[in-house]
Amino acid sequence: NIPGGVVAVDDGIYDVGGVAWNGGPTNRIAITSVLDVVSLNGPASTWIIGQGPCGDAAVRCAYVGTGARLIGFTLTNGHTRAAGDVDLDQSGGGAWCEPGGTVENAVIRDNEAAQFGGGIKHGTVRNSTLQANRAGQGGGASDAALAQCVLSNNLATGNGGGANGGTIENTLVVDNQAEYGGGASE
């Protein structure tokens, strides 16, 4: 790959294969360079599908490294391990981002993390919908910067049904559930 380059991805359902990265679970896609991975026709046409349930055989949808961007995908059915490192193994069912990793124009739905960020853990999320994700803390997102997003129908068994930690800017937060802080918590 070419650092700073763009990889255009054709329409399709991507639900086989994967790579483990940085000690975490298997990811359908791992962007480990400064690179933009962009779907040609957006999230309605290009799906990355993980594998559940949470456990040793789980597959997260995406790992997004520092300076990388994943643009225009639906990320669904991503899961984490149920044991191991709380951050790397058990968090970020849909996507796990390094600092400076970004997910844009995405639909992040029906993912699950054993601990933090059912939809996404860390990183920046822009112009995206996080819907019906589940986790112990931060059903939709945990420790992420959310801007121009929709957080709906996410569930946390602990804090922050929609989001836990991170920042929320110009984002609609509706119908999320948690034991504490249904919409969001710090």
Describe the protein's architecture and organization.
With 186 residues, this protein is an all-beta fold. Helix content is 0%, strand content 45%. The chain is built from no helices and 25 strands. The strands form four sheets. It has an eight-stranded mixed beta sheet, with no helix packed on it. The model has no long low-confidence stretch (mean pLDDT 95).
What Rg is obtained from the alpha carbons, in whole angstroms?
14 Å
Oligomer: single chain
- The computed structural class is mainly beta
Percentage of helical residues?
under 10%
Note the main attributes of this structure.
globular, 186 residues, 8-stranded mixed β-sheet, mainly beta, 7-stranded parallel β-sheet, 25 strands
Précis, in short:
By secondary structure, this protein is mostly beta strands. It has strands spanning 5-9, 12-14, 19-20, 26-31, 35-39, 46-49, 59-64, 69-71, 74-76, 95-97, 102-104, 107-109, 120-121, 124-126, 129-131, 134-135, 141-142, 145-147, 150-152, 155-159, 163-164, 167-169, 172-174, 177-180, 184-185. Strands 3-4-7-10-13-17-21-25 form an eight-stranded mixed beta sheet, with no helix packed on it. Strands 1-5-8-11-14-18-22 form a seven-stranded parallel beta sheet, with no helix packed on it.
